[in-house]
Every structure is written in structure tokens, then in C-alpha cells.
Amino acid sequence: MILVTGANGNLGSATLAALRVGGAAATGGSRTPGEGTRHLDFDDRTSLDLTGVSTLVLISAGYAEDDQVVGRHTALVDAAVRDGVDHVVYTSVTTAGDHLGFAPAHRATERLVRASGLPWTILRNGLYAELFGGLLMWADDGVESPFGNGALAAVAREDLAHAAAAVAANPARHRERVYDLVGTPITAGQVADRLGVPHRTIGLGEYRRRLLDETPGLLPFQPPMLVSIATGIRHGFLDGTAPDLTELLGRPVSDPLAKAVAAASAARPEASL
Q1: Which residue, 243, 188, 229, is CA-closest to 97?
Q2: pLDDT tens across 145-198, in order?
Q3: Which residue blocks in the chain are alpha helix, DSSP H?
């Protein structure tokens, strides 16, 4: 049995769906499980029952400070060892993302997985095209961003889900492999051109100010995380490509520009009216 954590999240649910479409025996785990999924609360070790699980797809339990994220992952890896899981597949962050604000938690988890004694595969996922488009800010008749002319080797979330499913369905073939799953470089200017609007660059200081002063609901760790993404794209650290994703998918990657444009368009103020 394959178990995918974060089954109610975007990546987890898409990975579970891809596995089931492919005929794999798979279930999901979530803090708030639905029909056909298990209750798994990373903050409650007594809920972490992985009995009968052969392959664990550990979708990163982010959206918290690093120590909390690593603590959650440690609890699940410990449960995997205790319950005799045969293989762990971990969704990490792209190799080029070591400077990103959330990278330490990913790299620490990679160490945990490697040191567990269990067979493992690490998927170093590029940043979502949907995220890139969603981070553009609508202003007057155009969009603004802190990305400048920098490019992001963005990836469609669905492609990453299908890659995770391909690995989980045949884990022995991918034992002790690290895959760098990045896509085709795109820029904010290209997204704006496709939308038919101008793009204006703002400074990183202004971007941080807007996050802190004009973006209600952000958790304390999120503004520095988002600024780290912005500076990484702006200064050319996240535009590198690799063949791994295409090879795992067995087909060309989905067009990340189209995904970014759709996300930006959905965020347009009149789109919600």
C-alpha cells in the first residue's frame, strides 16, 4: 500500500489521484481525513500509524517555522521505521533553492530520511508556476512584481504530482536517487505579455513593506520566505533547467507559462466580482 501525506493539500491530493488513475493501491493521510483516507496528525505522534504501508510519500508539512516542520517530519520518519515501511519518497525543494528561506527545513529532512536506514528517494521540486503567477500584483492597468527580468524554471503542480506518483508506483527503480524537478524558465514580463498588460518592477524593500503592512493574514515566517523567493528569481538563482522531470514523466513538461498566466488572471480584482 502506498500512503501519501497531506492528502487534502494541492500536491498531495493530485499525487494520490494520479496513483489511483494508474491503478496503484494507494491511500492518503491527513489531519482532517475524508472518505478513504487515514487520520495522520504530524503534531500527534499517537495518530501516526503506518501499519501496512509499503511506500510512504512524505509531502512536506510546511507552513510553520523550521523547527516545527522538522519536528513533524521526524515524527513521521520515526513512525515509518517503527512500522516497517519499505521506502520513503520525500518532496523537497530544488537544488538551486538552498538560499531560500524555507530550504533548511527541507535539507534537514533529507538528512533525516537518508539516516533512517530505509530505502529512499528525494524529489527536489521546483517552484510552482501557479505560485509564480499568483505572486504578481495587480495595479491599475498592469501587474507589478519584485522579480525584475529574472526567470524562474517553474513547474506545473500537476507535473510534480505525476512525477511523485511514477516514483511511488515503482520505488525500487528509484532507490537512493535525488531528482531535480525543474521546468522551463519564465519571466514576469512574459506572463504580463500573455495577459496583454504592462509589467512594472518594484524594489525588494517595497515588496517587503507591502507584505508586512498591506497583506493581512500572513504568518510571521512568510514575509521573509516570500522575499527570499523574490530575490532568488530576480538575481538569477532559480532559472536553471534539468532533464529529470521529463524523464520521470515520459513526456514533455506542461507549459508553465500557461499555468502562471491562469493563476495571475484568476487573481485579477475583477475576476472575483
Answers
A1: 229
A2: 999 999 999 999 999 999 999 999 999 999 999 999 999 999 999 999 999 999
A3: 10-21, 66-82, 103-115, 129-134, 157-169, 188-195, 204-214, 222-234, 244-249, 256-266
- Has this prediction a pTM greater than 0.70? yes
- Cα 164 from Cα 257, distance rounded (Å): 22
Residues 6+ apart with CB under 8 A from 169: 2, 19, 22, 24
Q: Return the number of other C-beta atoms located less than 10 Å from residue 252's C-beta.
A: 10
pLDDT of 38: 92
Angle at CA 73, nearest 5°, toward 79 and 65?
150
| Cα–Cα distances in angstroms (integers) from residue 69 to residues 40, 102, 103, in the given order | 15, 10, 11
**Phi and psi at residue 218, to the nearest 5°:** -70, 140
Q: What is the mean pLDDT of residues 72-99?
A: 97
Cell of 187: 519571466
Helix (H, G, I), strand (E, B) or coil at 203: coil
8 A C-beta contact, residue 181 and residue 126: yes
Mean pLDDT over residues 228-254, rounded?
98
CA atoms within 13 A on the CB side of 183: 31
